[in-house]
Amino acid sequence: MKKHSQQLIELNAQVRQVLGHKVKRLRNSGFLPAVLYGKGMESVSLQVPYKDFERVFKTAGESTLVYLNVDGNQAVPTIIHDVTQDPLKDTFVHADFYKVRLDQKIKAKVPVVFQGEAPAVKDLAGIFVRNVNELEVEAFPQDMPHEISVDISSLKQFGDQVQARDITLPEGVKLIANDEEILATVQEPMSEEQLQAELAEPTTDVSAVKEVEKEKGEEEVPVEEPGAAPAPEAKPEKPAKKE
Questions:
Q1: Are residues 89 and 112 in the same domain?
Q2: Is 156 within the bounds of a domain?
Q3: Which residues are registered as beta bridge partners of 84?
Q4: Considering only CA atoms, which of 63, 78, 73 is closest in space to residue 111?
């Protein structure tokens, strides 16, 4: 296995005895409830200093390797697999650490960061359109990048695109995507006439569609409301969080 050059990220943790509703007091005392799990091991309830976790998560995200020191024992290689945040305060309330093996490749979704300036935006007042926020990659845990940088300086004309084939990944990292997937493009700015015409276009009356179907005696088919969120994708099963 080749030696990796990434900065070693470590985080201290303790086995947690406080469970259930009592974790609120734990959070108030400056600790974050967490759980450690992985293939072939029983899940372990943990607590980590909140400030330390905040700092580590900013550096590692959910893709970079984190060595977890539990009660001073040998460090466990992990990936921060999931975090739960308070929707109002935007603070962390729980974290999952997934134990990984350094000799086995894993797949993870890595944030995409667009770098540079698009001439079609700067000089032609075009509209920059981002099509992805993250990309799935495969690599050994120690080679997993924190983010993927995408250069947009090649977007010189309206309609120019950056595709998956155009990005350069670190050694040992494989992109799990179609080479022709469009990551970003630049659109021509919409004129005032085009904007007014689009706003004037009639929208589909969902209730009227349903009423017509009933009158025809056809079986009613649910009509998706405009702007409705798609059904969530199934996620891999993981141990229930024990708080």
A1: no
A2: yes
A3: 94
A4: 63
pLDDT for 72 equals: 87
Main-chain phi, psi angles of 52, to 5 degrees: -65, -40
Which phi and psi (to 5°) does residue 158 adopt? -60, 135
For residues 150 and 182, is the Cβ–Cβ distance under 8 A? no
C-beta of residue 123 within 8 angstroms of C-beta of residue 176: no
The answer for residues whose C-beta is within 8 angstroms of residue 71's C-beta and 6 or more apart is 13, 14, 15
The Cα 161–Cα 156 span in angstroms is: 9
Last residue of a domain, one of 73, 102, 131: 102
- Model pLDDT for residues 179-220, shown as the tens digit of each residue: 999 999 999 987 777 667 767 766 555 555 455 455 444 444
State whether 127 and 149 are in the same domain.
yes
Length of the chain: 243
Residues 6+ apart with CB under 8 A from 1: 102, 103, 140
84 to each of 32, 46, 67, 90, 230, how far by Cα in Å?
11, 15, 20, 10, 21
Residue 153 belongs to domain spanning = 107-187
Q: Which long-range contacts (CB under 8 A, 24 or more apart) does 27-31 make?
A: 27/93
Assigned domain for 198 exists: no
At 151-164, the pLDDT tens digits run 999 999 999 999 99
- Contact residues for 35 (Cβ-Cβ < 8 A; gap 6+): 43, 44, 45, 46, 94, 95, 96, 97, 239, 241, 242
Longest dimension (CA), the chain: 72
Which residue in 184, 174, 175 sits closest to 150, CA to CA? 184
Domain count, the chain: 2
Give the residue from 43, 70, 102 where a domain finishes. Answer: 102
